[in-house]
Amino acid sequence: MGTALLVTAGLVATVAAGCGDGAGAVPKITTTARAGVAPVPPQQGAYFGAWVPPEGTGRPTASGSPSASDAPSGSPSGSPSGRDAGKPGMAPVAGFERQLGRQLDIVQSYRGWKSDFPGGLEESVADGNRYLLLTWGGADTREIVQGRHDALIARRARALKALGKPVFLRWSRDMDKPSAEKRVHSPADFTAAWKHLREIFTREKVDNVAWVWCPTARGFGGVNAGAYYPGDDQVDWICADAQPGGDYDYRDLSEALKLFMEWARKHKKPIMIAEFGVPKSYGTRRAEWLREAAKTLQDPQVKAVVYFNSDEQAESARDKRRAYSVSGDKRAVSALRELATTPYFNPRNLPVTSGG
C-alpha cells in the first residue's frame, strides 16, 4: 500500500493546472519537493484529509494545538480500512472513514515544539496508504535563528527521515495571529527562522518532507499575512486555515478564502486548505455550507483539503460557533461524504462504499 502511494506521488514533480469542473486555468504549479519521496500534488483534483481527534481528548493544549496523544485501538466494523483500525491511534480515523465511505488521503496530527515524534499515530499513518500531515508547533523565532534549538531540530529531522515515507510538514501555522506575536516577533524573524529550519533539514539530508506554509485566511484581510512568506524557493505548498470564525452568524467558505486565493494566484504553488469546518451554530444550513464549499474547493490550484472534525476549540459546551465535528449530524455527515467521494477529491480513485 505504501509503495503504491510513493508511485502515485512520483508521477510528477511539476504539475500543470488541473481541470476542476470548469474552473479557470492557473499557472503551472511547481514544488521544491522530491517526487517519489516527498508528497507532490496530484495531476488532477485534490487530496482529501481530516483532523480526527484521539478518543478522550477535548480541550486544546496550552499552545493552542490539539492533544496528539494516541487513541485507544479498536476496529469499527465496516470501515473501508478496517485492518488499520487496530494500529495505535487509528481507531478514530477508521471510524471517521467509515462515516465518509472512503479512506482518507491525508491524516493530520499535531505536535508541540518540544514533543518527540513520530509517535504511534504518525507511524501508523506512514505504515499505510495515507499521507501524514504533521502540524508542528512553533518556538521563539529569534532563539531558533541564534541556534539555541539546533540540536532539537536536527533530532526531529532525523526522526522524520527515518520514518521513510512522504510527510507534509506544517511548521508554526497561524504565525500571523496576534496571539503568536510574542514568539514570532515579526515577519522578518519568522522567515529567518523558517530558512534556518530548512537549512538543518537539508544538512540532515531529509528529502521525504514537503514544507507547508500556513497562515490564517483571515490574515490576508487585516494583518499582512503575506509578509510572513519565506519565498517560493523555500515553500512547497501554500496553505490557509479557513474556519469561518466565531464572529459570523453565517459565512460561506468562498468568503473566508477570497483574499487568500487572490494572493495565492501570484505564486506557482499548490494550495492546501488545512483546517476548514462548518460550525454547529449553522444548524440545518450545515449541509448547504458543505455543498457550497465543495464547489469553492474544486479549483485547479487547490490540491489538498483537510476537514477539521473537532469541537475542541469551543470555549464551552454551549459554544456552537467553534464546534466543527459533523459526527452525530446525519445531514452534515451526508454532505461531507458527498464532498469526500466527489471524483475531484478522490484523485487516487480509492474505493467508495455507501458509508454510514
Please tally the β strands and state the result.
8
Total number of helices: 10
CATH class descriptor: Alpha Beta
Helix/strand order, N-terminal first: HEHEHEHHEHHEEHEHEH
Organism: Actinomadura monticuli
Protein name: GH26 domain-containing protein
Keywords: Glycosidase, Hydrolase
Region (Disordered): 47-92
Characterization of this structure:
The protein is an alpha/beta fold. The protein has one domain: TIM Barrel (Alpha-Beta Barrel), CATH 3.20.20.80. An eight-stranded parallel β-barrel has the order 1-2-3-4-5-6-7-8. Strand 7, helix 9 and strand 8 form a beta-alpha-beta unit. It is globular and about 50 Å long. The N terminus is likely disordered.
